[in-house]
Amino acid sequence: MSRALSRLGAVVAAACLLFASLSVADQKEAAALEPFTGYLMAHFTGESTNGEQIYLAHSDDGLHWTDLNNGALVLRSTVGTRGVRDPALVRSPAGDRYWIVATDLRIAAGTSWSDAANRGSTSLVVWESADLVNWSAPRLINVAGAIPGAGNAWAPEAIYNPATGDYVIYWATNSPRDGVTKHRIWYVRTSDFLSFTAPQPFIERGGAQGIIDTQIVEVPGAVGGYLYYRASADGHISIEAANSILGSWTSLGNLSHLGISNGTGGGNVVEGPMWMKFNDRDEWALWLDQFATGRGYMPITSTNLGSTRNFHTRSDYGMGASRKRHGSVLSLTAAEENRVLGRWGATLPVNRIQSYNFQDRYVRHADFDVRLDANVSPAQDAQFRLVPGLANGSGYVSFASVNYPGYYLRHYGYDLVLAPDDGTAVFAADATFRQVPGLAASSWASFQSYNYPDRYLRHSNYLLRIDPITDAQGRGDATFRVVGG
């Protein structure tokens, strides 16, 4: 061997060692995130006024979930269609950056499914955070705009790809290709969720069969024989496996033997497959959204993903108060869990608002009007949480409905109604009140309007409104007591 070749070999060897050391460093950096102590789920709740926004839930064991933020939404989209579905939680390998990527779609606005699929948004909505609790304003990334004839961009996911050192964002787009218009899975690569490569086809089924709702999970140690597994909705819930994200994938089958399909096989018709690894063991849950029956998520679990026959159904789970639709789960470190629960985990007490001069009656909503009634049924119609004021959280309160999460008491034309928070400054001001000593009895309470400070919450013929208070009758009508629910 010549001296030059020897030097070249040394250089190559050094480069290999450097690459290996960087890979080991990356692995150590990722490993430093463990141990995980809890779970965070991002989801939407349905096609209600506020249902297509970002909600969060927490679990200690991965099977029993508690709604965070008292069941109210956590993030609201103010861009694109002003609604979001199918949120995906993404963490950087170092655990120092997080993203939420979601479908830009709001069916509740009156959009038909045909319009949404064929003439919908080709952008995704992205939020970014450095700590999982303080999030940027939402922004749009037009990932599918360059796809000829693209009608939409649905059900996005993102995963870090160690082979390329960046993230793969993938989603479903309905578009014509090779003479067939249908949903296919496309992907782009990005390092910052701001700029991205040109969209490329990722998954396509044969004939006219479309595919949506793909989600990939990485399996450390390649349990079951592969490093990555993906589940997709393509008439069935199909499971595939690979050892590289952008490499070739092997079909492992579907869930028809469990009586579960995406429609083609009948049975329990589901969508939105959502992977989750249990923190304390080599076991995985695949959560499936039972949209056809409106029952929300159910888990099937496996300790070996190498065969679909290893999955079994579970009954030992609870999903909390709200219906959870297509989302994603992120395992949390102790530090992350403390931050998340510190911000959204505190549960405010449930209260009733008792009338001073009709003490057998309580404030309640009925068909979204607000009145005083005795013997309220259902009891939840008279239950509220006094949360920090939407327009001013210092010294002011808003009345959040217990059985209509995201709905608040507000005045409209001076009349009190129960209405969903639409994110506007006008709504926030109309739903905010200052709690002051009772006008008729100082040990009770009265509630002064935030944006009409000369008016107070009061009842008149048992109906709630805001009025100026000028006499003893008005002072009695405007006095209440906050009692336990």
TrEMBL record:
Spell out the protein name for this chain.
Glycoside hydrolase family 43 protein
Report a single Gene Ontology molecular function: hydrolase activity
Keyword Hydrolase listed? The answer is yes
Q: Which residues form the Alpha-L-arabinofuranosidase B arabinose-binding domain?
A: 352-482
Signal peptide location in the record? Answer: 1-25
Instruction: Please give the InterPro entries that the UniProt record associates with this protein.
Output: AbfB_ABD, AbfB_ABD_sf, GH43_arabinanases, Glyco_hydro_beta-prop_sf
Q: Which UniProt keywords apply?
A: Hydrolase, Signal
